[in-house]
Write a structure and sequence with these properties.
The chain is mainly alpha-helical. The chain is 59% helix and 0% strand.
């Protein structure tokens, strides 16, 4: 194997850097497809989308049980909850969810404060 083949393989195996989903942003995506700044900016929307998807999955779960067992679907749901089949839906709807403890006003004020404090370095070129 020549040196060029070796280097070519190493470059091929290197991880790809994903770019932020936000328009005109060239920063590397770190979380949910966004860079850190745009993740903070879109945090509320991302959280709402996750909760909506969780609610949709829960509705599909309940509808599936109702179709399979129309007479005893309540008992079937109780069994699922007791045996842990329901765990994936629990996080989005529990009162222990720490994200629900943030009030909207405080959250928006904090994000605005963080965004005001951010500074772009002179050497940064998008």
């Amino acid at each position: 194997m020549t040196l060029l083949e070796y280097i070519g393989r190493k470059i091929f195996l290197m991880a790809r850097i994903r770019i932020c989903k936000e328009d005109d942003c060239k920063n590397a995506a770190t979380t949910s497809g966004y860079c850190r700044l745009h993740y903070l900016k879109n945090w509320k929307t991302i959280r709402e989308e996750k909760q909506t998807k969780a609610a949709d999955r829960l509705n599909k779960y309940v509808e599936g049980i109702c179709k399979r067992n129309p007479d005893g679907y309540v008992e079937e749901i109780r069994k699922g909850i007791q045996h842990g089949d329901f765990d994936e839906f629990e996080d989005a709807f529990t009162s222990n969810n720490p994200l629900r403890s943030f009030s909207e006003v405080e959250y928006e004020e904090e994000v605005k404060g963080l965004l005001k404090e951010l500074r772009i370095e002179k050497e940064f070129k998008p």
